[in-house]
Write a structure and sequence with these properties.
180 residues; alpha/beta; 31% strand
């Protein structure tokens, strides 16, 4: 699968070193607080597992299913919640964990739903990647792994048509492997 990449942006050791730093930031900010992490599935699975093992706090972990790419290389702008039940976050500090901040539509929809249908104490956003591009919704990450160019990336949980998630790195998918 590596031969399907134009280039590698971040290898596994670089990703894990950055997760150590992010975990330290989160642990300092939430020291002595009850934290619930809500991971956006399926893309954040690898990121979630590796990051949360590094945070030395008692955590509640939950997930929410959302789809916006629908097999394409750009967000469709149509957000579909594949998990209807929301986690119990009333009165809790919530950290939404996602693999990538792209258009902002998905994270905006999740944050809006969590704050209008539940009553969290606070909501912050943590993403592994943030694309350098204009957002259609005003959303930013409180915790950020890496800033990337506006390219289609795979690996470390990120996929194209449900493939490449298991690569231990993040790379730019070659256009010759993208089916229109």
């Amino acid at each position: 699968m590596r031969n399907h990449l134009d280039r590698v942006l971040y290898d596994e050791s670089t990703i894990l070193a950055r997760l150590d730093e992010m975990a330290g930031e989160i642990a300092r900010d939430y020291e002595a607080k009850e934290l619930t992490v809500v991971a956006v599935m399926n893309g954040s699975l690898m990121f979630m597992a590796d990051l949360l093992r590094r945070i030395p706090l008692p955590l509640r972990i939950d997930s929410i299913g959302v789809s916006s790419y629908h097999g394409e290389t750009r967000s469709s702008g149509t957000i579909e919640f594949t998990t209807q039940a929301l986690p119990d976050i009333d009165g809790r500090h919530v950290l939404i964990l996602d693999d990538i901040l792209d258009s902002g539509e998905t994270l905006h929809a999740i944050r809006h739903r969590l704050t209008t249908e539940r009553s969290p104490e606070s909501v912050r956003i943590c993403v592994l990647l943030r694309k350098q591009r204009p957002r259609t919704r005003q959303v930013d990450a409180d915790y950020l792994g890496f800033e990337i160019a506006d390219e289609f990336v795979v690996g470390y949980g990120l996929d194209y048509q449900e493939r490449y998630r298991n690569l231990p790195l993040i790379g730019v998918l070659s256009s010759s492997h993208i089916r229109d």
